[in-house]
Amino acid sequence: MKNTLSIVFSFCVAVAFGQGRSNPAVDSLKNEADPAKLKMKLAALGNSNNENDLATVVQYYASTNQSPKGDSVIYAAAAKFPHGRYALLVAMNNFSHESDPVKQEALFAELQKTFPDKTESMEFNQAHNTMAVTFAEAKNTVKALYHLQQVKGRSNAMAIATAFLAYDPAAAEKLVKPELDRLKPTLTETAPAQGNGRGGNNNKAMYYSYEILYSKILAKQGNNAEALKYAKDAYDYFPKTTINDATKSYAYLLAVNGQYQEALPLLTQIASEGRSNAELTVQLKTAYEKVNPGKDGSAYLASVKNDLLAKVSADLGKKMTNDQSPDFRVTDVNGKKVSLADYKGKTIVLDFWATWCGPCKASFPAMQLAVNQYRNDPNVKFLFIHTWERSTTPLADAKAYIAANNYTFPLYMDVKDAKSKINPAVTAFKVPGIPSKFIIDGNGKIRFHLTGFTSGQDEANAAELAAMIEMARKGS
């Protein structure tokens, strides 16, 4: 599927083959003023039997913001040189987007057979990193650690430990504590000045990021007092200009350690900016009631949420549209087809997603908050539409992912048409990439279109979506 190679991938490919330094062949193409001659030169290079010539074409398209054309050349090069560099990169791209660790491992075995001379390459080394994370997210500690041990050089230990945290904090601690011990002696080092004249120690930010994670591990193990020490150390290091993970960890641990007076203003600030989550919301209610005996914590939470909703709503009017929605058709998990006409008079939220799409899945906690809010409202409907499948079992994959994460999403399928090889619903909406969310009013008008959410702001994202739903409802 050609749309899986995004402009980012084209750019990475171009860099891999020398875009970072001046390429006279690319410069010659960019300086060609005659369109006819340029077309001939590009065609000649594209038909060459030398893969470097096709790399020149890719670099040219990447440097002139013509990524789709570059993607086409990438696929052509991969087909023409099945054991070449582009074939490897395309195969690695497909491998990295596979969300099932067992299938991913099978793809890796095929890569080893197809590219035996590349098994010591950077790409293969990174593949072990990728599999370690995928197995960790699938709660397979043994396999995750096996692939982690195969990594040469810097590993993705933080991502793996973060995944372990949810189900195996002891394994997470075994990864994080050595990193803290390794980095701590370097905190006093001064890095050489950069090109902008500023120096810095990158190990510091890494060290304190590991401290945040370590505080979460200790808290998960019930050692809240010790966890607070690490959280405070990290909180003192990071800037206070924005709410970050250090702020949230420190505020949470202040509360669970009974330091409510100190926790309350931080927890309130976090909630007011929409950066809260279920755990922090519980602690905010508790802290408020402890600091203000006899007062209703639930009422306080409601006032903070209403203030956030008002703040979010104030800016949404400028983003509202009035475009007619395509008459889409999708299928539910039982095979029943539904269309736009089935939702006449209702406000609907369409969420195009896929199991391989990281940003799609990152938006789901906020989407679950919104689903919960409108669960009993018969006039608001959510359709989570799985599209752009990369496996032969998309329905099973999607159902498994939703079930494994305890989401209560109404699942629909936009599967590829057997003849046209396109996914009809997502194509009808002219979606360039996912996640892509549409809020459609009762008259079938698209009132809002979202391409994703800001990471780490579940409460704010859910509040924004709720405001859009209410505005769409009033406008229909």
UniProtKB/TrEMBL annotation:
SUPFAM superfamilies, per the entry: Thioredoxin-like, TPR-like
For this UniProt record, the keywords arranged alphabetically read as follows: Redox-active center
Gene Ontology biological process terms, A to Z: response to stress
The GO molecular function terms of this record are:
antioxidant activity; oxidoreductase activity
Using the record's annotation, list all stretches that form the Thioredoxin domain: 319-474
* Protein name listed in UniProt: Redoxin domain-containing protein
